Structure formats: C-alpha cells, structure tokens
Amino acid sequence: MADKLFLLLVVTSLPVVRAAIPNVICMIEHCSSQMKDCYEDSDCKNAMVCMIGCGTSNQTCVFNCFFSYENEIFDNFMKCIVTDYKCMEIPPLNPPVKCHRPANIQTTFEMESLIGSWIIVLGKNQIYDCFNCQNTTYIQAHEGLFSAVEHYDIKAIDGTIKHRTTFESIVQWNATTPGILKYNSRQMGLEIHSEWRVLDYGTDYIFAYYCGSISSNYFYEGAVVYSKSVTLSNDTLSKLKKVATDAGLDLNTFCKPSYNSC
C-alpha cells in the first residue's frame, strides 16, 4: 500500500497533473498494478519526480523528463491512467498552442512517394523535430494504408544517448485533398494524432507541416524537410525557402539534426 500512496502523492503533486484534476479513485481502482510497477522501477519513478519541477507551461522540460526515463513500464502506466481509463487528461499548454495550417498544399501528391527511407534535415519544432539520427522508413501496408518506423537518438538528462523507435500508421485525408495525410501512433502510452500537409516535394525531398494532438485540447505543431541525403542542393534549398515563406514559415530558424555519429 505504501508504494501506491507514494506514487499517488508524486503523481498528484505534478503541476501538469494538478491542472488536469486527476481522478485518484479511478487510478487506484483500474491502474493499481501499473502504479506498483512504476513505483518499483527507478526510471518510471524518476520520470514522475523529474516533472515536479516543470510547471504547467514548460513543455520542453516535461518532454525531456519523458524522453529521458521512458520505458515499457512508464508507457503502460501512462496508457492505463490516460488512454485506457481516462483517470486524467493531459491539460493544454498555458498559453495553449494554436495550429496555423498553411492553405497552399500540394494537390498531386501520391502516397507511394513516401515509400523508402528518409532523414529529417530541417525541423521547425525544437522539441519534436530536432533529434539527431532521425531515420524514417515508409512501407505500404495495404491499399490506402502506409506504415512508418522512425528511429532517432535522444540525449537524456544524465547525458547518455538513448535510441528510440516510433511506429505510425498513415492514410490520405481523401481523394480530393491528396496533400493532407493523417498520422496515428501510440507514444509513451498516449494516443497521438496529427494532420500533415505536404507543402512541396520532389523525388529526393518532402517538405511538410503538421499539427498534432495528445488530448482533446492539447495541440502542437511543426514542420520538417525529409531528404534522401544529409544535404540539400542549393536549388532545392532556395525553392524550399520560398515555399516556407509563402506558408508563413522561416526556414532559417529551422534546426539541422546531426548524422555524424549515427
């Protein structure tokens, strides 16, 4: 019993959780075994303790804690209390993020253009798009449905490098808007949904904006340039800068992930 009480105290003391008004009875009734496992696992427990100092608006801090200590036990705990039984909902950032979806998107994009392996050479969102060694491989699962496996490295709080993998499913929005794609995945026990808009593409690059959600009122946005190689040609880069400007984005502010030690 002491282990559950300790973890309840830790979880309900998190600023981000207090803002979500967790249902403690729900957590005890449905997620006791996951709470016990989290308490007995140093990484899972450290993730909770780490987030105490993050507040409700420091998204970078929260996700640094997540990425640094995430493991299967942590994922199962979050899946139980957030996804499966909705004992709490991830609250929106303060101030909340509003997605600014570009209106000019590609009208001739074909899903088959995704097939193969890509690396992210430019990224807008410092939290989600800038991991080093990002390699994403797309395959066609069956007609109309594609799958993606993304490998990337994160630098944990303790300075170690951890290798992460994410699995996603992708479908086209509809036949009349081929440049809009829907991505779905489960990450850190949470259901992640995002809308991607293809702004430009060629045989060796894809430039896309995305708006994602973790809960009904928690949104985030970003943009990436996929490439078949680590560098873009000057002609491609010049073209993408114009496309970005037209979409209200500044390519000069994008991060450049490293692939030196992959």
From TrEMBL:
Gene Ontology terms: biological process: xanthophyll cycle
EC number: 1.23.5.1
Signal sequence range: 1-19
Gene Ontology molecular function: lipid binding; violaxanthin de-epoxidase activity
Keywords: Oxidoreductase, Signal
Top-rank taxon, per record: Eukaryota
Domain VDE lipocalin: start-end pairs: 24-256
InterPro entries hit by this protein: Calycin, VDE, VDE_dom
Name this protein carries in UniProt: Violaxanthin de-epoxidase
